[in-house]
Amino acid sequence: MPKITFTDRNNGDLIVDAVSGESVMQAAMLGGVSGIVAECGGSMMCATCHVYVHDDWIGRTGERNEIEEEMLESTAEPAQPNSRLSCQITMSDELDGLIVETPRSQL
Ligand code: FES
Questions:
Q1: What is the 56 CA–ligand 1 centroid distance (Å)?
Q2: Which of 8, 52, 69, 73 is buried most, with the most CB atoms less than 10 Å from its CB?
Q3: CA 73, CA 61: separation in Å to the nearest integer?
Q4: Neighbours of 67 (CB within 10 A)
Q5: Mind listing the pLDDT tens digit for each residue in 5-54?
Q6: Is 38 in the pocket of ligand 1 (CB under 6 A)?
Q7: DSSP state at residue 15
Q8: DSSP letter at 90?
Q9: What's the predicted TM-score (pTM) here?
Q10: What long-range pairs does 60-68 form, CB within 8 A, spacing at least 24?
Q11: Does the C-beta of 25 come closer than 6 Å to ligand 1?
Q12: What is the CATH code of the structural domain delimited by 3-102?
């Protein structure tokens, strides 16, 4: 079962178990990660699941698509080159140990 570390600037680190095939956002919701809001439930309409992917993992989490790029222009905290919508990162065994940071605010 792959694990994800969510680094939260307000509350510290939280390690969450994920299931291959689910999104990082879904794992965060089930794992009680307070730094992810996910208002739209994963339909790429809210950008409240914004995360910063740790440098060690940025090349392994896939590419942003065009709609994700547009949504990242409306995040509460400024998007950076390592920004992703966590609902668009699909977990797999290869991502075991993934580290993402949650923004100070999602709203
Ligand atoms: S949950 Fe709304 S964009 Fe990811």
A1: 23
A2: 52
A3: 19
A4: 12
A5: 999 977 899 999 999 999 999 999 999 999 999 999 999 999 999 999 99
A6: yes
A7: E
A8: B
A9: 0.97
A10: 60/94, 60/95, 61/89, 61/95, 61/98, 62/88, 62/89, 62/90, 64/88, 68/44
A11: yes
A12: 3.10.20.30
